[in-house]
From TrEMBL:
One of its GO terms (molecular function) is alpha-galactosidase activity. Residues 45-279 form the Glycosyl hydrolase family 36 N-terminal domain. PANTHER family: ALPHA-GALACTOSIDASE C-RELATED (PTHR43053:SF3), GLYCOSIDASE FAMILY 31 (PTHR43053). Its EC number is 3.2.1.22. Transmembrane segments: none annotated. Substrate binds at W191, D358, D359, R438, K472, W473, D474, C475, N476, C520, D542. The lineage of its organism: Bacteria, Pseudomonadati, Bacteroidota, Cytophagia, Cytophagales. This is Alpha-galactosidase.
Amino acid sequence: MKQLCLSLFLCFLLSFTANGASGDTHITIETQQTALVIRIDKDQTPTLVHLGPKLRNIAEYAAIPGNGKRGEDYTNIYNSVYTPAGSRNLLEPAIQVTHADGNPSLDLKYVRHETQAVADGIVLTKVYLKDPQYPFEVTLYYKAYQKEDVIEQWSSIRHTEKKSVTLHKYASANLYIPAQNYYLTHFHGDWANEMNPSEIPLTEGIKILDSKLGTRADLFQPPSFLVAINQPADENQGEVIAGTLSWSGNFQLAFEVDPLHNLRIIPGINPYASAYSLAPNTEFKTPAFLFTYSNQGKGGASRSLHRWARKHRIPQGEGNRLTLLNNWEATYFDFNEEKLSALFKDGKKLGVDLFLLDDGWFGNKYPRNNDKTGLGDWQENVKKLPHGLGYLVKEAESSGIKFGIWLEPEMVSPKSELYEKHPDWVIKLPNRSEYYFRNQLVLDLSNRKVQDFVYNVVNDLMTKNPTLGFIKWDCNAVIYNAYSATIQNQSNLYVDYVQGLYNVLERVRAKYPTLPMMLCSGGGGRVDYGALNYFTEYWPSDNTDALERIFIQWNYSYFFPSIASCNHITDWGKQPIKFRTDVAMMGKIGYDIVVSKLTEPELTFSQEALKTYDRVKDVIWKGDLFRLASPYTNDVASAMYVNEAKDRSVWFTYLVKNRYKAGSMAPIKLSGLDPAKSYRIQELNVYPGTNSTISKDTVTYSGNYLMTIGFNPQVDTRRTSVVLELAEAK
Ligand code: DGJ
């Protein structure tokens, strides 16, 4: 039955439903390795009885004890699949509503479920729930990406009550895990200091990770986490759940260790200031929560997410990317056509695919010569660019490279013609002083007219310059003084803003499906899979000090694949160009330097490195990532990518400590190779005038040897970064 259904659309799978001896029904959502099992008891109450390795015999799910068999659950819904508030629930709810008649309670009973194969290897299960007393329904969606071992879960809420219902909380998922111990790794930071990990044991009570920033929502923490079960998270072994909310606004991730010492995970939109008024017959769809369960530690979890993201989420996730030269740090706001033309030529000489013109090219009444003016006035500044963008696009193209442009279309400067013309398009309270974040305000994307304006900023640019090759979409401010001049219910604003943004991006992508677009938010203020539905790549941080970037990129790599990580070589930090290049290579390379200031050997090195990169980038972008030595616990950071055929690998090792004798003293054990294959090792990116200490002779090593004994890349204070290529010796 199951095999038959894989190729069929709309197939109701009875085989996925097991009935236990008790007469309970079991709904099984399975990937290649994992199962999530929902039990429907005789009272039609849906609970989650298993999330972990799948069993060989589907009938045995019926024997799994609910609640980890730890004692009495006073309510019998500690492990609800979607805990409703207000009736008998005593714990953190997934959903809390006030009905049209003022009743503040909800009960959700199982009605039916459907399972259908929606594409090859993707099975969607819908579980329909309903309040027995009110015409109020919730449908839970579970999309199982079978090969990638990823489950995408969201819910849809609707009702036919007489008036609007208020949704106080409306989470995306509600997971339940019985175990002895839980270790949560979460990430925190600030501008230029993104993604610092903290691993903490979870104890009874609730730990909340959240954002209330509106836009640039991930400035302090992202909606991504790891939970290790029973023992702290290890790279290669143990049970780990990696989860991330696909939402670019306020989020809340709640981790509750319940009275039975079981873990409840409730991720979703932040209920803070967001009681949502839902009209009858209107659907409210929550954002999706994405998660993967791995019993091969953090490494297994991240490889699953990477494969999923490349194949199913990021536009052209298995395609190409453009290397680029950006002018931001080379010129800041101070440029003109002449300077830019010289930079195009430099970019060509260096060997990149595209020149990216950053902030400062627009505004006339209030020219954008610093970060205080001009946002919203997306016309070329006639003093800096008298011949317009079209001229620059052609100039770049005649120098042999493509041209891309920076935009920050959601924002407005208080000093701008846009603000003068449309003060009601700006998010601000009517009776309070304006507060600025980076001297700017946020446009009200809950307003359709503003959505049209933002869409037209992109569309007009593309219509006038059809060969424009790249957009960097920035977002530098958070929402202060949240208030919309047009919205009816102010507490819908945070949600409607993000939906408005997605509407715009949906329209942009419908018209320009292949345009490469970088997701930037004053660094990594918006790195989530909601936005990455539309963007080909993201900007992890303004901090491009290569030493710092090793740590920042390392932590993003738990969730996001290297093909999407924009890693630029800049003048931040004290590292030599080789080190900066080697670090940038673990993703999509870009430059933000004055090429003409490079010394002869630096330029030669960079030109050669770009050629090498072109040859090996497919392995880095599309291969499996194995983190070998963590920069947090070793003198070196070391990680490798292995292609699917396991006949090629690129291996990076960097010195991260500078004490006497710091380095890779011993061989590092490799991972992910084929033990039966033989590999030849060659050093890449050897700096002009230096020699590789890795012997170039014909010695080959078996995958078995390299993974059991290892190999020393010989990183030390004289060789601070080493890139090695492994190729099968045939
Ligand atoms: C913040 C971005 O992160 C930078 O790369 C740069 O584009 C500036 N904004 C421009 O204002």
